[in-house]
């Protein structure tokens, strides 16, 4: 379980904003933070990682306190079991793929995790190559593997696939979902891409001007949007398959019958 309470005065191009949030995230969940640019999404990830300190706040992960400003507790980033993946791959250019992974591994850790990740994320043919020789999608796969080497309690993803083309993005989504499930992660994603959110996330938290304004499943959230147009409905055994036009994109939604019939 992740318990999170954060309060921070933020400054941006749009002026001053007060981030004030409180949320509980179940262990093993895949959650998306959704909202306009400047809503505070990336600031939340940075505070979870220990890269940014709130004015007031508390972060408790699986009963371990990472932050409690009232009691002056603030674990350093290296003491927090977090994996980070951003748009910028930030790989060491002078190291091979394998060396990048080994560098992230602690001295006392079991090296088997590297072998497992290379297999799961299909990096076997890339181990001896350096980042400059890899495509953007391959570099992002290496960045993901490196973030998982320490078996993090939290995987934080800040629009990691936004710079990739559609085909590669879908392929990387498969990897993300696979490692999330296989390594039993709690994952928090920042994304604006509707199909990506629907494909990956269990739950969506919408932020606006530093506040949480809505929390629900992605399917419920997007079917309620005023710009969503229902194209077709197919009744299956225990659910409905919906085709919806959202922001110019046709999205397939699979919704349990009880949820659809409640609407």
Structural class: alpha/beta
- Cross-sheet strand order for the largest sheet: 7-8-9-3-10-11
**Number of domains in the coordinates?**
2
CATH architecture of the largest domain: 3-Layer(aba) Sandwich
- Main β sheet profile: 6 strands, mixed
- Helix and strand pattern: EEEHEEEEHHHEHEHEEHEEEH
- CATH class identity of the largest domain: Alpha Beta
By CATH, the superfamily of the largest domain comes out as P-loop containing nucleotide triphosphate hydrolases
What's the mean pLDDT score?
85
Q: N-to-C terminal Cα separation, in Å?
A: 30 Å
Instruction: Give the uncertain stretches in residue-range form.
Output: none
Helix content: 25-40%
> Radius of gyration over alpha carbons?
19 Å
- Per the principal axes of the C-alpha atoms, what is the gross shape? globular
**Beta-strand level of the residues, as a percent range?**
25-35%
Count of distinct strands? 14
Helix segment count? 8
Question: What is the name of the CATH topology of the largest domain?
Answer: Rossmann fold
